[in-house]
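> @MW can you paste both from yesterday?
MW: sure, first one:
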Amino acid sequence: MEDRRTKSDFFHHLGIATPNKTDLLASVNARRAVLKLDPVADLAPENALKVGINPDAEHEASQPFSKLGAKNDLASFLKRLAVSQEITITGAKSDAVAALAQLTDDPALLRGIKQRALVERGLELVEGDACPLCDGPWEMALLATHLQEKIAKADAASTALKQLALAIDPLAAHLRAMALDAGKVAEWCEKASPPIDATSLRSHAKALDGDRDTLDKVVRDPAAIAHALQALGRLGASPAVELLQPADRLAAYIETLSDPSKEQEAKEFLIVAQEKYDQCRGTQQTLNIAAQQAETASAVFSHYGTVSTAMLEGIYDKVQKDFTEYYSFINRDDEANFEGKLSASFGKLAFDVDFYGRGRFPPGAYHSEGHQDGMGLCLYLALVKHTLGDGFTLAVLDDVLMSVDAGHRREVCALLKQKFPNTQFVLTTHDGVWLKFMQSEKLVQSTLTFGGWTVDSGPQVWNEGHVWTQIQKHLANDNVFLAAGTLRRFIWSSPRRSLRIICALASNIMETDNTTWAISGPGC
């Protein structure tokens, strides 16, 4: 847009409506002829337009106030105000208002605009019999048809959005040009002697820039519709008196200045023309650089996407292979042919698993809670193995198999021993049965029981001294129920400990009655 603006400014200065090289050179050489300077055949060489003008004359032309420059900029500003009432602008304004009204009158249409990109992306990602967004089970053909229907409904929304963009583009360009022209007139007012108050012009230019930003935004964000309608309402309104006052005062000031000679006018024209042409070349160069950078960025982005996707897919393949191996191991009784699949999805990593050869689905679709717990552990082990490799030497697992049945718990013990012989596992559990499985399968060499914890001192390790203190405290409060429960949990936490306590209790009882006890076993 800046490139288009500088070119328009340059052509306007030369008085060319339809720019072409022949007319541009003719306008320049007409002024050079007044100065008896050789004509130029090309605009490209450095300073070609003003070549031959001595530096003193150039300095004179660059004085703070130029009657010719101020007169031209003021005329351009007033013409721009008049253009706001012309059919080109009023027609585009009517089209924009109609497009916005269509969106506000039809909430479904507006919703379709917001959803279209998401639905199109979801259609690209349909793989397997599941929705790529919610992972809910779907037949792929039905899902594709459903998404296609939503896209078809959004076509009307897309058409409305394109019509809005077409209507907004000339309006935004017009507002930008108006703001720039108002700024130029304000600068001339401030250069006058004495300076003319141009506060209203500065405020007007700022308001125009704000309205342009709003119109640019509404094409991308329909939430700005209300503000865009307000901006369109202001566009084309009759200029306020306070806006025209500084322009009128500037026009009166210009008339008090003496007219420059034809030679002076020609010199100033060529010097200003050179400045504006240099601005055109600068913005064109910036545009070219931006285009090259965009092309490079696009290539880098594409290459990055290709490489990162290949690397991620390699990671997914390795992790899903280990995950499948581990889960098949602990469920080899009925899912020896199990297969898990990790794949990139829209904004996430899709995770689908086989269900007895009937297709791959999200874990929550058909597998039980116990199977999902097993999958979670296997996926964790596969991910950590890939991440740490031989550095996977310590793991803390906190009650990870609460819903897994007894048979599969034994297989988990075998998995940890066979597949991770060099990893030390610290396992916590509230489940005494799971503890006994770990002990009987020789997964753990030692156990430690916590009898409670506090924020200040942390966990309290349960030993016989602690537990008897707690039991005595409960009995002292005549709370036999809590005392019995504490003893029961303590005995249950260790078979060897329970035998020692039973032996102690038996000895105490044998001293007080005639009951005969036969106790055998380790620890007595």
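MW: second:
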Amino acid sequence: MKDGADPFEAIKATFFQECDELLADLEGGLLAIESGSGDTETVNAVFRAVHSIKGGAGAFGLDDLVSFAHVFETLLDEIRAGTKPADDPTVKTLLRAADLLSDHVSAARGDGERVDEERSNGLVAELEALTHGETVPGGDADRGGADDEDDFGFSPIAFSGLDAPALPPTVEAAPGWTVQFKPAGRMYAHANETALLLRELGRLGTLGVTIDVSELPSLDALDPETGYLTWRCELETTVDEKSVREVFDFVETDCPVTIAPLGAAGRATVNPPPAAAPADLDIAALLAAARSAAEPAPTVRPSPATPVAAPAPVLAKAVVPAAPAQSQGAQTVTIRVDLERVDRLINVVGELVIQQAMLSQRVSESGVGRSSGVAAGLEDLELLTRDIQDSVMAIRAQPVKSVFQRMPRLVREVAEMTGKRVRLVTAGEDTEVDKTVVERLAEPITHMIRNAVDHGLETPEARVAAGKPEEGTVRLAALHRSGRIVIEISDDGKGINRERVRSIAVSKGLIPEDAALTDDEVDNLIFLPGFSTADAVSDISGRGVGMDVVKRSIHSLGGRISITSTPGKGSTFTLSLPLTLAVLDGMVVTAAEQTLVAPLPAIVESLTPRAEDVQYVGGHDPVIMFRETFVPLIDVALALGYRTDPMVPSEGVAVVVETEAGARAALLFDAIQGQRQVVIKSLETNYQQIEGVAAATILGDGRVALILDIDAIVTSARRRPNRPEFKLAS
């Protein structure tokens, strides 16, 4: 925690971070249920997500959030209890409720507008109707958890005359815990329920529950907003105390709890027998009051002339069946760390890598032999530095799932606004990438998903007329390729109408009317600022802002974006980004006395060109024979403008590289210095973007070297006009 920071606000910020994770789990679980792949554990996970949000919100006094989450939770509890089916209308309502719950969280956090009360009340009414319409005869109001207590099978002990019966006989000792808690009235005001706490305890093992109502006053003195009951639970289980205490995480401040081992006597440890109850005491009425959510039992009021004595301790016994055995294996333990601290650690490790490289170079320049102890120690230091670097980068690695999980809601909203039926398919959600990259992926992916639904997919009627199913499909996938992460957004819509795109670009003055463009160049016109194919401005599109923002965002990450479109079949947008913005394994090379770094994952092989292996297409485009096929030969120094005359191929070194599209080319350098791990420094942030250059780095001798953008060099070399003539070496 930073100096001077408010501890309460820090805890609250942590709660909202957890809410983001819980909301993602909630939506993912509901989508699994909607697709028919949700099992009992999925339903339980969805319920726990809403319950955890409600409990935390209650602790911070977020009443609107608590109230909505309570109604949401009640319906989910009906579903997991099996009294309400998770049919299609119900799940669709739950998905809309999840969206509104997210809005309530945003409003409570202060980064969103206050939720419209009419909208919230309308959805609350729908949830309550679904909860009670089919399961409660007569449309009763919120039952406040009656089903929860029925699940526990509470059965009051029958009294004979004035004496209470003896408690059950002793049983053999069993491992477990004695849990005693007394809920305060404010716990119920925060929309928490004792029955839910007992149910969660019951999932940990075999649970015996004793209710002490000795503090319950006479009915005329009873305050319905005060807690009088003390609950004593004997839990036979093998879980540790921490797991038991986690059940009370969100209520412990409103519900003092003590946890102690069952002891050698196990379940045999009991309280002294309760005192006798007066003959005119209405036991059924007291039990009904103690179990506020249960159906009231018939009561017989005592005679007005007979005073009612204060109730003696009355015990009711409940036995909760043991939940299915849970895995007691090792669990992953995680901690929350401020991202700023991780960034500082990564910067320090980056400096360590640079210093290690400098030290190695100075020792090498001093003439120390490779077999000396100093050289051996430096090799060990290099290996250790790499291990540290890899470990630190693993801390920042994060699955793209956090971004992908936001998209189903977006697809549903845009589909409803456009009147289209859309199914989102995701793949590769567990693909890991640097956290900084993940965070900056959300905006461009959002833009492209909206465009895929709004512009790419046809209306249901048009799809049927074209022989396609009414429901369109948008696919979002992530994968690793050549040391980079590739994100693909595709649809099975109508594809890009190139004639229309071209005519719009001409009408907006973005290109001259007589411009000769290839299909790929026409497709890329949609990335120009101000370009839009929408006929009218709407809440979704039409303002000419979107795809140009996407391209800038991707380029700022050192990435690229490409389009593949087939008219009538759909389009695919491919984003290619570096896995990390911190380090890179590269090959250090020289070109025209300039030191450069070529990313190692893109390199296939290096070779020395022979004059007979080099041929020229059209007299000026050199190609080189590589494994029985010709590949383009690109003079990198010439491509980057370091010199104006091409070098003789046989005097240099050719490095065969493979682009992300799978195309191969040979890059011609003066020499190769060696392989090295380098720290990436953004060139665009400190200078400006340069075509063919992805970033920069600091070498061991303190010089700055440029990191090559392989795909950009290959692409620009192919389309460069007025190329100079190449001549064979004499």
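> thanks! The CA atoms of residues 606 and 655 lie 4 Å apart.
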